Amino acid sequence: MKHEWRKHEKNLYVPKEKPELITVSNQKFLMIKGTGNPNDKSFSDKIEVLYSLAYAIRMMPKQGYTPEGYFEYTVYPLEGVWDLTEEGKKLDYLNKDELVYNIMIRQPDFVNKEVVEKAFEIVRKKKPHPLLDEVVFDTLEDGLAVQMLHVGSYDDEPKSFELMKQYIEENNLEIITLAHREIYLSDARKVEAAKLKTVLRYRVKRK
After folding, report:
1. How many CA atoms lie within 13 A of 35 on its CB side?
2. Which residue numbers delimit the GyrI-like small molecule binding domain (predicted)?
3. DSSP states of 10-26 as a string?
C-alpha cells in the first residue's frame, strides 16, 4: 500500500488550528541553506533542486534501480527552519532580507547515503542543476515540540505564533530557540493566500 504522509502521519502533518504538544523523532532530510528574501529567485531555485532529487529517489524503480526496502510513497512536503541574522534580530520589524533558512524535504527510512548518491547521479545526467553541490543529506530531530496549523497568508503567521507562545507559557514549557519550523501543505503558486495551510512548530523543553 502506498505510504501517504497525510493519512499515515496525521499527528505531524494534519494538526489542529490550535497549539498542541508532540514529540518528533529523528527524520532524514535533503537540505539546502540560504539567506535572504524567500520571494527572490534564489529561493525558488533551491526548492527546485530539492524536488529534483526527491523525485529522482521516488522514481528510481522506473530508472531500473530499486533501493533495498523501497516502498511506494508520496513525496513529503517542503519544510523550512527559519531564523534571522544578528542584524535582523535587532530590528523591531521583520526584514525578509535578513532571514536565514534551511529548507528541506523529508525522505523515507529506506533512503541512505548510497540512495542519495544515486539520485545525484540521475539528476546530473538528466537535468544538471548549479545548486546540486549545496544540497546535504542528514538527519534532524525536533524532539519535544509545540505545533499548530496556520491557515492564511505567511505574513499573518505572527498571530499563530502568539497563540503558541501563550500555550507554551501556560503549560510550563519554554522555547529552546526562536528559530522555528514551517511545513508547507499548500503550493503557494496555486492556492490563494487566505487558504494556504502551513504547520508551524517550535522546539521546546519543560521548565
Report:
1. 8
2. 18-200
3. HHHHS--SS-EEEEE--
Cα Rg of the chain (Å, integer): 18
d(CA 5, CA 11): 10
129-184: per-residue pLDDT in tens? 999 999 999 999 999 999 999 999 999 999 999 999 999 999 999 999 989 999 99
Residue type, 143: G
Amino acid at 35: T
Cut 0.90: pTM above it = yes
Per domain, the residue ranges of the chain are 16-25+141-207, 27-140
Phi/psi at 194 (nearest 5 deg)? Answer: -65, -20
Q: Which CATH superfamily is domain 16-25+141-207 in?
A: Regulatory factor, effector binding domain (3.20.80.10)
Q: Helices in 92-207 by DSSP H: which ranges?
A: 113-126, 157-170
Spatial separation of the C-alpha atoms in residues 191 and 196, rounded to whole Å:
6
Phi then psi for 15, rounded to 5 degrees? -75, 170
Tell me, what DSSP letter sits at residue 155? Answer: G
Strands 197-206 vs 180-184: parallel, antiparallel or unpaired = antiparallel
Beta bridge partners of 199: 149, 183
Sign of CA dihedral 101, 150, 3, 142: positive
